[in-house]
Design goal:
Blueprint (H helix, E strand, L loop, with lengths): L2 H31 L3 H18 L2 E2 H8 L3 H13 L3 E5 L7 E5 L1 H27 L4 H8 L5 H13 L1
Antiparallel strand pairs: 1-3, 2-3
Helix pairs in contact: 1-5, 2-5, 3-4, 5-6, 5-7
């Protein structure tokens, strides 16, 4: 197989795995918190911006951080605001800009949601191991050989033998 064909094959595998993980995340988040993946990603993006010392984030920053268009981000912000997860207001230095801030409820959602994401990844990685998916891809998803996901994969593999 040529280098190009190998690259395309590997890219397709990664894309399929990504879709499976996102679908599993979506199910967990929706069932437990009533949120979609894009809403949770937006909250994480906002939280990371605050932790980075930037304080409030602008709408454009959120769009960049989530990979959504400005209009999709505006709709997302409206949903998050209606659910009481964020507050918005015009920036004091530029009235055309909208600043976004997480509420206490959003911080609780992030605290509860992060383990759900890890659980979703672990479940899919265990399935991939059983399906004998490419070892390099599994290693990448597990972050090397020393973390908890790798241990789960090793346990699943031993149990399957």
């Amino acid at each position: 197989m040529s280098d190009d064909a190998t690259l395309i094959t590997q890219w397709n595998r990664l894309t399929r795995v990504h879709r499976r993980i996102e679908a599993r995340m979506e199910r967990h988040l929706h069932r437990q918190l009533g949120l979609g993946v894009s809403e949770f990603y937006a909250l994480r993006t906002l939280s990371e911006g605050v932790r980075a010392g930037t304080g409030l984030l602008y709408l454009g920053d959120l769009a960049d951080g989530t990979g959504l268009s400005q209009s999709a981000t505006s709709r997302l912000v409206t949903r998050l605001r209606e659910r009481g997860l964020i507050t918005t207001h015009s920036a004091s230095d530029d009235r055309r800009s909208v600043e976004i801030e997480l509420t206490a409820v959003a911080h609780d959602v992030l605290r509860l949601g992060s383990p759900l994401l890890r659980q979703a990844v672990e479940e899919v990685v265990r399935q991939l191991h059983v399906e004998e998916t490419d070892r390099d891809l599994l290693c990448y998803l597990c972050g090397g050989t020393g973390d908890g996901v790798s241990a789960h994969v090793r346990q699943a593999g031993s149990a399957a033998l």
